[in-house]
């Protein structure tokens, strides 16, 4: 017997059969099999009897055998019946297939004096869900098994281990498997949970095994969901996690609570959807992530006063999922007792106001409110609740007039949902309205949760496209969606990538979707190189200076600094957090500062249109500061923040940076350091995929004066950098990757610039049928001018 403590509850693993000899267990199995055979024979004998009493005894035995057969692959007790306190033996929560693995491994370990953990791994590899997980991780199951056997055979300590030590190791493993099963909302501890636990248990040989195949324990756990979920007939009890709200099945409408005190609500039913009905048939309700928001929601709705919650979050971030999970919990008697007998009803406001004049609308609303009050078991959800407080639209104004007093009086629990912009613009100023609700901010789910959800979604998509999705594809889609696609939120942003990759794979006739296909799709969408640098591209990066010099004349220091920053980024060596790189270009007008930025945008981001350019002379006062990042009331969106949200992978050029309003300069302390900025709507704008270049003419008069006195550029540059503290705060200057002083161009360099510009002119007039050539003397004259 061994104890494993999880949270504040204590669990044991005690199985008397493992204390027997191999022969003893064999006798028990044979006796059990013989007993089942005799019972089956007796049942059919009784059913064939002419004596009614014997026949009905046989019928009862048959029903018992059918029930036993239906639950043949299940454990004795489901995990949702785990006691809340005390000590519990986990042996009764193991599925029979998982127990057989442990029993066989225990026997083999005892007889051959080998590591019990290694033997469990070897046995588990034969389980369908484990083989499926390894395949999704692109790991050869036969090679994995061979390596596991090698490592198990090499364990000298196992030769001296006694039965108690082996029992302790097994108990520790089952305790960790329980954690895995509960995290993934499993009904029992299955073989897949045991396999995930082998990667988490503190066992030297297990660690070596998984490290040899570069398998991350977290990846393994989520990859196992493919096999576990498929084994449970399609998507099993998680079907509602990936489906819509429609269902081909007839939904039986329940209106009566267990106390028989509720009343029918015909008017409400005609303008609403009952989520508790949908939850009973498994169409809605599965929740991964958002646990803090969900717990806060039920706390608010369960209290006797002010039981109103307002969920604020972007479209597709999961507000509806949190609410639907409450309906699911109510349908399964898992909600707090204050909510356990409620109906969660979604009001269709558009249906309510459709085809009704003001009098009819008032009548409908009055009847709905009366029905809810009389029924006494309704939680009302009002989507897009900002429509009730907007000042446009007679119908909505009438709806607000009727519903607002009811909401404010806390007559029944109300859930409202809205978006950050609408909350800021329409609701926040209404203190009376906001005071009636607890505001709950719904945030984007974590990448780990998104991976888990996308596994379930991938299984459904596989049936549509006939392409197997690897876990690597899922993980890559989540990673790239989080990094590059900020206009949508996880998991929907990652799901779109998977869908597009599946379409491309289906078109090519591929049967397996790996991470490389997802990377290709992401690159096409953002027009950015994301894949690992190989071959010709590596050579291009090595000679990036030459490419930039095709359009930028001179300024070797600036070109070299830019090229080094791009190489660091593409090789994965760039500093985590902060932009890809940030530069302050200092120098007089017309020496190539902006031209270098354009050339970099074209080289690194694919086009000059990927450059977001701001003339900072337009942002010199407080009002322009609000134009830059948005006004506090949400009425004006931010030019900078909106631009980066729509082009998260881009070059941000800030011309004449020194002329910006001081508060704007302070903003870039955070941008250059953390690579993020919070806008007026509370959105976190990500700058980690941008290159920020600020140009400045500050102290160019000092440069020109020094040059006239015959000083070299290297002497001038260091002096100018020290004098920049007269214009910028030292802490801002220190946050730039590099401060680059652009020098005046020499005559031969100016001639090269002239030739570049004349090439453009020649191409323009050629379209009109004119051939134009310039003599060397003309080029020199233009350069001098």
Give the SSE map.
Layout: E1 2-6, E2 9-13, H1 22-47, H2 52-70, E3 87-89, H3 96-112, H4 116-124, H5 128-136, H6 141-153, H7 163-183, H8 191-198, H9 204-212, H10 217-231, H11 266-270, E4 272-274, H12 275-280, H13 291-302, E5 308-312, H14 319-331, E6 343-347, H15 349-353, H16 358-375, E7 378-382, H17 394-408, E8 414-418, H18 420-427, H19 431-435, E9 438-441, H20 447-465, E10 468-469, H21 471-484, H22 492-508, E11 512-513, H23 515-526, H24 535-542, H25 544-549, H26 556-570, E12 581-586, H27 593-605, E13 611-615, H28 622-629, H29 639-646, E14 650-655, H30 662-674, E15 676-678, E16 684-686, E17 690-696, H31 700-708, H32 713-723, H33 730-735, E18 738-741, H34 747-766, H35 776-784
Parallel strand pairs: 2-3, 5-8, 5-9, 6-7, 7-8, 10-11, 12-17, 12-18, 13-14, 14-17
Antiparallel strand pairs: 1-2, 4-6, 15-16
Helix pairs in contact: 1-2, 3-4, 4-6, 4-8, 5-10, 6-9, 7-8, 8-10, 10-20, 13-14, 16-17, 20-21, 20-22, 21-22, 21-23, 22-23, 31-32, 34-35
């Amino acid at each position: 017997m061994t104890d494993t403590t999880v949270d504040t509850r204590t669990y044991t693993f005690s199985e008397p059969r493992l204390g027997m000899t191999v022969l003893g267990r064999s006798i028990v199995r044979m006796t059990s099999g013989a007993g089942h055979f005799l019972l089956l024979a007796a049942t059919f004998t009784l059913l064939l009897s002419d004596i009614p009493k014997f026949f009905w005894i046989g019928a009862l035995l048959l029903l018992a055998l059918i029930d036993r057969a239906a639950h043949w692959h299940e454990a004795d007790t489901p995990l949702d019946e785990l006691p809340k306190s005390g000590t519990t033996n986990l042996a009764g929560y193991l599925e029979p297939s998982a127990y057989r693995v442990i029993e066989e491994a225990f026997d083999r370990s005892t007889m051959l004096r080998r590591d019990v953990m290694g033997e469990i791994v070897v046995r588990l590899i034969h389980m369908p869900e484990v083989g499926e997980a390894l395949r999704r991780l692109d790991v050869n199951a036969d090679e994995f098994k061979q390596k596991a056997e090698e490592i198990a055979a090499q364990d000298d300590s196992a030769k001296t281990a006694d039965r108690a030590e082996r029992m302790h190791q097994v108990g520790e493993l089952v305790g960790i498997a329980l954690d895995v099963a509960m995290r993934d909302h499993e009904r029992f501890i299955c073989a897949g949970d045991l396999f995930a636990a082998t990667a988490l248990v503190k066992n030297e040989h297990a660690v070596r095994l998984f490290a040899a195949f570069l398998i991350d324990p977290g990846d393994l756990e989520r990859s196992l969901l493919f096999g576990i979920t498929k084994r449970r007939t399609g998507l099993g009890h998680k079907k509602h996690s990936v489906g819509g709200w429609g269902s081909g099945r007839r939904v039986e409408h329940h209106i009566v609570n267990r106390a028989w005190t509720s009343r029918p609500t015909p008017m409400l039913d005609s303008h609403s959807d009952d989520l508790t009905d949908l939850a009973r048939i498994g169409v809605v309700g599965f929740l991964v992530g958002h646990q803090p928001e969900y717990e806060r929601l039920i706390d608010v709705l369960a209290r006797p006063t002010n039981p109103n919650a307002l969920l604020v979050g972007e479209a597709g971030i999961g507000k509806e999922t949190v609410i639907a999970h409450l309906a699911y919990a109510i349908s399964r008697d898992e909600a707090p007792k204050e909510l356990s007998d409620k109906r969660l009803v979604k009001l269709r406001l558009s249906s309510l106001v459709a085809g009704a004049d003001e009098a009819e609308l008032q009548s409908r609303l009055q009847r709905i409110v009366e029905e809810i009050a009389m029924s006494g078991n309704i939680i009302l959800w009002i989507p897009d609740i900002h429509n009730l407080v907007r000042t446009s639209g007679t119908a909505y104004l009438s709806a607000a007039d009727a519903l607002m007093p009811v909401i404010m009086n806390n007559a029944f629990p109300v859930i409202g949902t809205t978006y950050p912009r609408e909350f800021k613009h329409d609701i926040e100023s209404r203190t009376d309205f906001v005071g009636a609700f607890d505001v709950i901010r719904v945030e984007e789910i974590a990448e780990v949760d998104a991976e888990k959800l996308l596994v379930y979604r991938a299984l459904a998509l596989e049936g549509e496209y006939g392409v197997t999705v690897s876990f690597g594809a899922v993980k890559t889609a989540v990673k790239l969606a989080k990094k590059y696609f900020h206009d949508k939120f996880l998991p929907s942003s990652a799901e779109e990538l998977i869908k597009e990759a599946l379409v491309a794979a289906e078109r090519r006739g591929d049967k397996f979707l790996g991470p490389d296909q997802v990377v290709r799709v992401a690159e096409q969408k953002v027009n950015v190189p994301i894949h690992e640098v190989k071959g010709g591209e590596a050579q291009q990066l090595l000679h990036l200076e030459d490419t930039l010099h095709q359009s930028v004349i001179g300024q070797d220091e600036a070109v070299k600094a830019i090229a080094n920053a791009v190489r660091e980024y593409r090789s994965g060596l760039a500093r985590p957090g902060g932009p890809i790189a940030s530069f302050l270009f200092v120098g007089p007008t017309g020496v190539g500062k902006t031209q270098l930025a354009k050339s970099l945008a074209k080289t690194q981001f694919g086009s000059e249109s990927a450059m977001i350019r701001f003339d900072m002379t337009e942002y010199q006062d407080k009002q322009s500061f609000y134009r830059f990042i948005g006004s506090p009331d949400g009425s004006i969106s931010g030019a900078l923040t909106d631009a980066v949200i729509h082009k998260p992978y881009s070059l941000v050029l800030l011309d004449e940076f020194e002329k910006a309003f001081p508060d704007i300069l302070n903003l870039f302390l955070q941008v250059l350091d953390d690579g993020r900025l919070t806008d007026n709507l509370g959105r976190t704008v990500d700058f980690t995929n941008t290159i920020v270049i600020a140009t400045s003419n500050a102290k160019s008069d000092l440069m020109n004066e020094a040059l006239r006195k015959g000083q070299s550029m290297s002497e001038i540059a260091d002096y100018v950098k020290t004098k920049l503290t007269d214009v910028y705060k030292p802490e801002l200057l220190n946050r730039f990757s590099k401060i680059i002083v652009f020098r005046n161009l020499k005559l031969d360099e100016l001639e090269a610039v002239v030739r570049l510009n004349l090439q453009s002119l020649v191409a323009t007039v050629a379209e009109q049928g004119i051939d134009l050539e310039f003599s060397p003397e003309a080029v020199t004259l233009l350069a001098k001018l």
